[in-house]
Amino acid sequence: MINTHRILVSRFPLALTAIVLLLTALPATAAKPPVVCENVLLISLDGLRPQDLFTGADETLLNRDAGGVRDVQGTRDAFWRDSPEERRQAMMPWFWKTIATEGVVFGDTSAGSIVRVTNGHKFSYPGYNEILTGASDPRVDSNAKRPNENVTVLEWLHRKSGFDGRVAAFCSWDVFPYIINTERSGIPVNAGWQPLTETLDTPALREADAIAAEIPHYWDNVRYDYFTFQGAHNWLKEKQPRVLYVAFGETDDWAHSGRYDLYLDAARRTDEYIRQLWETAQSLPQYRGKTALVITTDHGRGDTREEWKSHGSSIAGSEFMWIAVMGPGIASGPPEPGTVTQSQVAATVAKLLGYDYRAEFPEAGEPLPVWRGEE
Ligand SMILES: [Zn+2]
Predict the structure, then answer these.
(1) Contact by Cβ (8 Å): 347, 357
(2) Which residues surround ligand 1, an ion (CB under 5 A)?
(3) Taking the CB of the first residue and of the last residue of the chain, which one, N or C, has fewer CB atoms within 10 A?
(4) 264-287 residue pLDDT tens
């Protein structure tokens, strides 16, 4: 007994000293592993130009002939301000108040931050394929409803334990069930004018479907973002997915229709939808303090009085886009000058959840430099 006691007494200080020495011997610069989030909200606004996101309403388009604006004075009152900072705040108040201060926004070329698509097409299916798979694919060269042969990061996560049945997508454009390949991936994708109650039956969504059935469908392949928001918001509350992708579409379609006033309105409404999704998430224990938000776009648009309406390989400047990331462990403030690409979103989403996407898909772009202490 006495012997054992002596040994314990004499060994404990030794062991402690060894631990202390070991700890102090570690280099002070050793990187801590990044914070792992439990959930990711991935959101896209189709074809929202970085010019408008960073500097707000474009004065050359706040008129009838170039911008198709019907009520010029009313639109100016709503969106025109003296400084770019005030203008962008008028267009997307929540984004600029919250994400820009608590997260990182890439793509402000005036500050040397450039984001570009790597696919040469600069239109939607190739862009969403690049966002969701992490690489451009020369076979993806049209917007046709073809099931994607590539596995998206959504499907890759969906196959992991803890994610089965906990990944979903609500999308305004009706091609998304093919882009996400819902048949193969098993991920519920509610898109286009598809009734929301086909995916989730709640009183609110029954009412939304009844309204959708009564109003004009200005575009037959893109529903109004309000319905996409309603579907996503209800799914978030009822099902609490770990990965929710919400793809808004109106910004692109109002621009194609040559209506800069309605394009600005759509951006502002979408900002409010994102605020509500985020605040609902933060009110639920499943999400509070353990959820990241990634927001981006599929392509930019032209930069002239005519070409702002369009995008594509022949429209100069439509390769420029933007990406925003916010969440636990993510840095805040403007990023370092430099170029990042659309192909970096997929690996970023995976890394936010603690996974190395590139270990399996080495052709994917690397995660964005957004982690605090790692930038
Ligand atoms: Zn378009």
Answers:
(1) yes
(2) 47, 252
(3) N
(4) 999 999 999 999 999 999 999 999
**What DSSP letter does each residue of 172-230 carry, written as one string?**
SBTTHHHHTTHHHH---EEETT--GGGT---HHHHHHHHHHHHS--SSSSB--HHHHHH
d(CA 361, ligand 1 centre) in Å: 28
CATH of 34-360, one of 3.30.450.20, 3.40.50.1260, 3.40.720.10, 3.40.190.10: 3.40.720.10
Non-local (6+) Cβ contacts of 33 within 8 A are none
What's the 46 CA to ligand 1 centre distance in angstroms?
Answer: 7
If you measure from the C-alpha of residue 299 to the centroid of ligand 1, how many angstroms do you get, rounded to a whole number?
Answer: 8
Take residue 5 and report the two structure tokens written for it.
């006691």
Angle at alpha carbon of residue 331, lines to 330 and 333, rounded to 5°: 135
**Sequence letter at residue 60:** T
**Which three-class secondary structure state does DSSP give residue 258?**
coil
For the chain, what are the domain ranges?
A: 34-360
What does the pLDDT look like over 10-66, one tens digit per residue? 444 555 555 555 555 555 455 566 789 999 999 999 999 999 999 999 999 999 999
